[in-house]
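Re: [ENG-882] Designed sequences occasionally contain unexpected residues at chain ends

Forwarding the minimal case from QA. Structure tokens:
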């Protein structure tokens, strides 16, 4: 019968109804596939099969393996956070650029209206001047 080892990077943490030690070995069938997947998806846990010879790690090996896995998971989380941050910054930049574009468009439209009004006044004044010089 095969076994599975669950390593908890934060011993004492509660998951699936129990408090987890740093490492525990369970018989096949102890956890459902759904529960095992939840452990695998949780960065605080490392799930690995136990070979026929059992766990072959010394204390230092175990600590190194946990530290390496924690570092790997931290790097993955940092990458994911960076992507999320970059996406949020890009979205806010797009929103701000669009607001500035709209504000400038409104200002340009107002200036065009002012130009049209002044052009009409100028044409009217020139017409009045021309009419006055003909009298």
């Amino acid at each position: 019968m095969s076994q599975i080892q669950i390593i908890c990077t934060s011993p004492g943490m509660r998951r699936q109804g129990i408090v987890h030690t740093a490492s525990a070995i369970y018989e096949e069938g102890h956890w459902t596939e759904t529960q095992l997947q939840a452990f695998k998806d949780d960065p605080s846990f490392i799930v690995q099969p136990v070979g026929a010879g059992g766990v072959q790690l010394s204390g230092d090996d175990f600590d190194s393996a946990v530290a390496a896995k924690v570092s790997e998971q931290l790097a993955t989380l940092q990458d994911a956070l960076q992507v999320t941050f970059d996406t949020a910054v890009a979205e806010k930049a797009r929103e701000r650029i669009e607001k500035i574009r709209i504000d400038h468009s409104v200002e340009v439209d107002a200036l065009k209206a002012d130009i049209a009004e002044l052009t009409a006044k100028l044409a009217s004044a020139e017409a009045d001047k021309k009419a006055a010089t003909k009298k």
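QA comment: On inspection the terminal residues look reasonable. The mean pLDDT is 88. Proposing we downgrade this to a documentation issue.
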